[in-house]
Every structure is written in structure tokens, then in C-alpha cells.
User: Fold this.
Amino acid sequence: MARKGGTLGNVPSEYGFEWKSRIRYGRYPLIHIAVGRGADGKIRVARGVIAIGQFGVGLVTIAQCGVGFLFGIGQAILAPIVIAQVAVGVIFGVGQIAAGHAAIGQIVFAQYGLAQAGLARHLWSMTVKDPEAVEFFSHLFEASLTSFGLK
Assistant:
């Protein structure tokens, strides 16, 4: 971890790491990794086709907190398809708290939900076994096994 410059309170004014690939897609690097703060004291945000960091925005985002325009993985992520502790998926979310058209988690908010508890039009939980949810997630599980060559 590099430290340069003065201080911002008790925090060094620049610490962390930033790297961008030379390959670009339009204005964005193929890969952007950003962690920590810049010399101006602002939090670095990874912005790229693949964004990796504490905060990230990209087609694919791997971050503590971020937005993925296709897929995201992290702690708190918004993306069409997402795996996160707090997962807000437009299509599919998996997480401790998950939302999406279909969601799997401890607590879910979805059209189709598989959870310990949740709000879903079709919920498969510890206390509720909506037949449409059971069929949906059983088919999803079977299709996943087939896709990965496990069946």
C-alpha cells in the first residue's frame, strides 16, 4: 500500500492502489482496479468493462459496493445478475438479502423466491412451498447441473 503526500485528518491523503489496462473499449479500460483514496482525499472508484475495487461500476463488477451492467459480485451490488451479501438483481439475485425477478437468499424480495423468509409472488421457504416456486427452482437446479456437466 503506497503512502504519499500530507494528511487528511488522521488519514494519509493518498493511499491505496490503482491500475488500468492499456486495452480500452471506448472511453473505458478493459480492466480497472481501484482501492483506497487518491491524492485529493476522494475515494477511488473502479470504472471499466471489468471493475474491481472497494467501489466499482462496470459491465462486470467485483466490489464491496457497486453497479454491474451485466454481472456483479461483492458485498452490496446492483446488477441484472448478482451474487452479494446484499444483492439487488434485476433478473437474478443471490445473497443474504436478495432481490430480483428470481432470488435466492436468507431474506428475499422477488417474483420467484427461495429463502428462509421473504416476500415473493411465488415463495419456497421454510414455511411456504408454493408449487410454482418449487417447479421453477427445481428446473433451475436441474438446468444448472446439466450446464456444468454434472448430470
